[in-house]
Amino acid sequence: MRKENLSFKKIGKQILSINKYIESFFNKLSSFILNIKKFAYSNNNRVFFAIITIVILTIAYFLIPTTYNKSLIQEEIENQILKKYQINVKFNNKINYGLFPSPYFVSKNLSVFNNDKKIADIKNLKIFIKFDNFFKINQIKIKDLILNKADFNIKKDDLDFFIKLLKIEANRDKFIIKNSNIFFKNKNDEVLFLNQIKDGSFYFDFKNLENVFKSKNKIFNVPYELKIENDKLNKEFLTIFNANKLKLKFENIINYNKQNLDGLFKINFKNKNNLLNYKIKKNSLNYFLKDTNKNYEGLVQFKPFYFESNFIYQSLTFNDLFKNSFFTEIIKSQILNNYNLNAKINFNLKKIYDLDRFSDLFLKLKIEEGALNLADSKITWKDNLILSFDEGLFNYEKNGINFNGRMIINIKDKNDFYKFFQINKKYRKNLKKIELDFNYDFNEEKITFDNLRIDNKSNKKIEEIISNFNSNSKKFFNKVTFKNFVNDILAAYFG
Q: Any bridge partners for residue 494, and if so which?
């Protein structure tokens, strides 16, 4: 009984305390209202009450959407998005209302369908609305849409989803995509590549009367900017791609008013412009370029995907070819390290400006399921010797990218070879072939050698020289270092 009495006493004290708080609140509120009245009537300030009334009515008006039936407003928004953007959005969670910076609805974990097929999951969708009329649900009009953290799973047949967004009727609203991913897949549902969209938007440019898509992206660790313009009047698509990391920019104009699409591809690489013509058929693309210094031609097949191309250059510098070149940046970006990629690329260079003794560089690149192989590639050194790759594989590892293989040097004119490298006369003996294994580290720009054999022979002295060279930080592509290395090897062999 004592315990029960104590409990009742505690509850009673809590009730009294709550009553005191309530009484105090209403006393303060009454005092505040009384002061307002005194202020207003003492100053005959009816304007003050008018302003207060307008503010309250305005806030009340903007809060009307909070009273809507959530199921009905979701259905209405779904219908408007479908009608305006031809996008089928399904809400999986409840919808909430926000007021600042302007009225909007927001929801999480939505699904996007294209032709009754689910193609995306959206973690967060914000729908801004016009505030012309909040009194009826069916009079609500949507404005900008912001998709945040969306994952798109796209196949070839789903690309019309984005094309439709470039064909919407002229309006001043935007369709915005932020922090999202586009997974491009093949028919077997395997991911071909991933494109990350940091910030993108579809909108209508009233100045140029064009539908526009503009975005900042990343693909294969390469950041780039993309802009697509749809001129519906002239039925032309203009695509502008800019990758500063690769020092590459291209513009593509394509007319879609024909059965077979013709296009003009403008490439700017290291501030040098090139124009590439191409034709698109049902399942393939042909392209070609020809000027005084270079000649490109190639074929891209879509079903199944296969790429074949020939690049012929009359002359380039060593730096253009190897140091900070488009080729090395492509290799470093790992854009070619794709299991679903198969290609054959032939690269032929007639002359290297700053290495005048080297000519007729022929690189034969085969890509099979993402594996890069340069076997059967070769280069001629002043018609006196031929350097060829018996093997040549690119290896992508966590620590970096390596190119390793086996090189064979066939010597046709040993006397000219000895003369150029200033080999001591006592070491100028019969020499036909040099073979060696190598590994080139793209990140450190360092080469190492192994298993060097001269006319199928080697010795411990040569092995020691190779070991010392590999442990040395000197760069092999230095002319003095290269000559000294050759002299040491031949001295060790013939001495």
A: none
> CB 160: neighbour CB atoms within 10 A?
13
Rounded CA-CA distance 5/95 in Å is 49
Instruction: Report whether 95 contacts 105 (CB < 8 A).
Output: yes
Lowest mean pLDDT among 90-104, 245-259, 379-393, 419-433: 245-259
Asked if 245 and 221 touch (Cβ cutoff 8 Å), the reply is no
Residues 303 and 371 in one domain: yes
Q: Which residue has the higher pLDDT, 59 or 448?
A: 448
Beta-sheet strands, E only, within 248-384: 248-255, 261-269, 272-280, 284-290, 294-302, 305-316, 342-352, 358-368, 371-373, 378-381
Q: Look at residues 185, 203, 221 and tell me which one is the last residue of a structural domain.
A: 203
Q: Is residue 120 part of a domain?
A: yes
Taking the C-alpha atoms of residue 211 and residue 206, their distance in angstroms, rounded to an integer, is 9
- The span from the CA of 97 to the CA of 233, in Å, is 39
Q: Is residue 52 part of a domain?
A: no
Residues in Cβ contact with 28 at an 8 Å cutoff, skipping those fewer than 6 apart: none
Average pLDDT over residues 381-396: 85
Q: How far is CA 66 from CA 70, 162, 351, in A?
A: 9, 33, 74
Mean pLDDT of 294-312: 83
If one counts the domains in the chain, the total is: 3
> Which one of 203, 231, 249 terminates a domain?
203
Whether the predicted model's global pTM rises above the 0.90 cut: no
The β-bridge partners of 201 are 176, 214
Q: How do residues 317-351 score in pLDDT, each as one tens digit?
A: 766 766 656 677 777 777 777 777 788 989 888 88
User: What is the 8-class DSSP label of residue 317?
Assistant: -
**Residue 218 phi, psi (nearest 5):** -150, 130
Q: Are 308 and 298 in contact (CB under 8 A)?
A: yes
**Parallel/antiparallel/unpaired status of strands 342-352 and 371-373:** unpaired
Q: What is the 3-state secondary structure (H, E, C) of 84-134?
A: HHCCEEECCCCCEEECCCCCEEEEEEEEEEECCEEEEEEEEEEEEEECCCC
Q: Which domain holds residue 168?
A: 68-203
Asked if the structure places residue 235 within a domain, the reply is no
